[in-house]
Amino acid sequence: MSIVLPAIINSYTKYANSGDGENGSNCFLDSAIIYDEGKEIQGKADIASWLANSQKKYNYIIEPISFTQNLQESIVTNTLTGSFPGSPITLNFYFKIEDNLIKTLRIEPASNAFNSHEFDGKIVLVTGGTKGTGKAIVERFEQAGATLIFTARTEPEDKMHEEKDCRRYFIEADLSTIEGCRKVSDKILEKFKSVDIIVHKLGASSAPSGGFITVTDQFWQEAINENLFPAVRLDRALIPSMLQKNTKKAVIIHISSIQRTLPLYDSTLAYAAAKAALTNYSKGLSKELSPKGIRVVCISPGFIETSAAAGMINRMADANKSTYQEARDLLMNMLGGIPIGRPNTPQEVAHLVAFVASNSAATITGTEIVIDGGTIPTI
Prior knowledge:
CATH architecture of the largest domain: 3-Layer(aba) Sandwich
Number of strands: 13
Shape: globular
Distance between the termini: 41 Å
Order of helices and strands: HHEEHEEEEEHEEHEHHEHEHHHE
Strand order of the largest sheet: 9-8-7-10-11-12-13
Number of helices: 11
CATH superfamily of the largest domain: NAD(P)-binding Rossmann-like Domain
CATH topology of the largest domain: Rossmann fold
Structural class: alpha/beta
Number of domains: 2
CATH class of the largest domain: Alpha Beta
């Protein structure tokens, strides 16, 4: 998989791999700080020394395996292979960029370390898979060896074009329509005959703020069309082939929302009701399919800090003449607070999805798993 990184991060990675401390330090601001293994390395001179000595000591190679960013950070997950205990390891590099130079770099062990062959031979369908959490889910499965089919209304800018050995297959379709769902299922059955895992990530809300009175019949119907019907229609079209394949290890995951439990009346009432319907549908489907070898699980995230969410926070900050952090805190307070003090990241949700789809979760079916940092205040 080709990972497209910002130029300054590419440069840093190149010089870190070569042990060129002097040129590597030029990727940083004069006052930059690196946080690594509990230490703080500050200033270009110390950073240059740290880069050169680290490479000399460990003789490592950094290989990026995933990338995401929001308005605050660029996050690169890297595999490091070298002459150190436990090699190779997976680390997350958190970059803050200012004036096209690195302001801070925080390096932490990736709690998401995984088996790169975990999903070898598996065919995975992810709806809404070109942005945010959907994109993170696609990347997570691909990194673990799966063949990916993913959908969206428009083609992604970084689409890998289909080749003979390509494990990524994009289908452009509007799944809020009957025609769009039919297009996706027909193409899948024609090319792949069946799938092993379905992740129904697609979901959205387009209703305006202003309470229930502003939610017209059109907005209610759109909420159902975008958050319930795509899963129902694609499941109906693809489950027969999954049963015929008879692997006894197929999985269907419906991505719902904690709003099905904590609806926000101002602008997402219809969305919350549609997600409640999806959760209920998921439970009912599991009763029928689990005895036949297809596990069905519902995952309900809370607030996820995607690039789109970060854009919304930034707009709130501009409107209120506040900082990004103040606007972010305000949004979390509107949700009733997040006890761990921050939203989910797309990657955290993606790793939960991958776990649920894996053989490690072989007895998990017919349930809802919440990932919300403790937002829901009740048991």
